[in-house]
């Protein structure tokens, strides 16, 4: 995947890439589509661990997104790699532990691309993992808040379409 000129590339990352990061990937894609900016963005998601590689999105995430008409069809867990640092403009972790593991995998963050999703909101915090909490509603609310804040941040920047 070569970096396209003028396309903003975002990688959402969580521990297993079956709950939070695919939720963030598909919520962000839905927001971008509603803004008619799909040609300006590429959004994907990945895991810091290898535990779920190849598995589909968790049923709880699929069911929650289905309530909003969002499909995760065709998404299977994959792991973030060192090469992703050059491929993406934003590498977004769901919690502090994800960010720590991302920095280890990526070999650092010299360009300041690695952030937590809710760092862009007015209330920075971790997004709780519904794998443990079982609360996909709260996770969705947090992911939605973070995606809105991240998209607003990006649209406020001086990118090629501005």
How would you describe this structure in keywords?
single chain, 162 residues, alpha/beta, Rossmann fold, four-stranded parallel sheet, 13% strand
Structural write-up:
Helix 4 (96-106) links the parallel strand 3 (90-93) and strand 4 (114-116). The protein has a single domain (8-156), classed as Response regulator (Rossmann fold). The mean pLDDT is 94. The protein is globular. The protein contains six helices and four strands. The chain has 162 residues and is α/β, with parallel strands linked by helices. A four-stranded parallel sheet has the order 2-1-3-4. The longest helix has 21 residues, at 136-156.
CATH topology: Rossmann fold
Which second-level CATH architecture applies? 3-Layer(aba) Sandwich
Total of domains:
1
CATH homology group: Response regulator
Question: Rough shape?
Answer: globular
Number of helices: 6
Structural class: alpha/beta
Task: State the share of residues found in helices, binned by percent.
Answer: 25-40%
């Amino acid at each position: 995947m070569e970096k396209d000129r003028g396309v903003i590339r975002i990688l959402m990352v969580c521990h297993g890439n079956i709950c939070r990061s695919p939720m963030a990937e598909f919520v962000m894609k839905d927001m971008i589509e509603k803004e008619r900016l799909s040609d300006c963005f590429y959004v994907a998601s990945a895991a810091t661990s290898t535990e779920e590689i190849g598995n589909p999105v968790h049923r709880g995430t699929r069911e929650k997104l289905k309530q909003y008409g969002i499909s995760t069809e065709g998404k299977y867990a994959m792991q973030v790699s060192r090469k992703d640092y050059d491929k993406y403009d934003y590498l977004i972790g769901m919690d502090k532990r994800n960010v720590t593991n991302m920095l280890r995998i990526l070999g650092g963050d010299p360009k300041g691309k690695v952030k937590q999703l809710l760092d862009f909101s007015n209330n920075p915090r971790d997004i709780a993992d519904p794998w443990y909490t079982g609360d996909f509603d709260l996770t969705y609310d947090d992911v939605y808040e973070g995606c809105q804040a991240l998209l607003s941040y990006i649209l406020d920047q001086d990118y090629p379409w501005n």
